[in-house]
Amino acid sequence: MLGLKSRTDPAWVEVALSDELALMRDHAHLERKAAGHVITLMGQVPHAADRLLEVVKEELEHYERVVALIHARGEELGSDGGNPYVRRIARLTGRTSLDRLLRMGLIEARSYERFDLLATHARGELQELFASLKESEAGHHALFVKLGYEQWPREEVKARWDKLATAEAEIVADMEWGPRIH
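Request: output the structure for the sequence above.
Response:
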C-alpha cells in the first residue's frame, strides 16, 4: 500500500479509538507540524513551491477541522506531547532534500493506511473526518515521491525509499499502540 513494507494490525484501531479526544489532539498537532515541515520543503525545493503551498493549505485546513471537533466537544487542544513515531522517522533520515521528501512521503502513506482503518471502524463525525482525510494523505504522499523523482535519478530515489520504508516498517512493528495516528 503506497510503497509501505508493512500493514498495521487491524487490532490497532480499538486502541487508537479508546480515547477519541487524545487521538484528535495527536492528529491536530501532526497536521500543524506537517504544515511547518512542508513550508521548510518549499525553501529546499523551490521549483515546486506552488504545489507544496497547496499541501500547506490542506494541512492547515485539516488542523482547523480537527480543532473545531475538539472545541465542539467542549475541550481544548492542549499542549503537544510529541509523537514517538515521527521522532524515530526523523532520526533515520538525513537532512537532505530527498530524505525530507521521502520522510514526508512515508508519514503520509502511513497516515493514509491508518485513516483507512479508522474510517472503517470509527463512528459519526470521526468516521466522516478520517474518510475525508485519507485521500489527501495519499495525494500528499504521491506528490512528495514525485518531487523526488523530478530532482534525483530514479534508481537513487527508489533505493532510498526502499531503505527508509524497510526501517519504517521496523519502527511501526516496535511501537507501542496508543490513541495516536502513528
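The first helix runs from residue 12 to 16.
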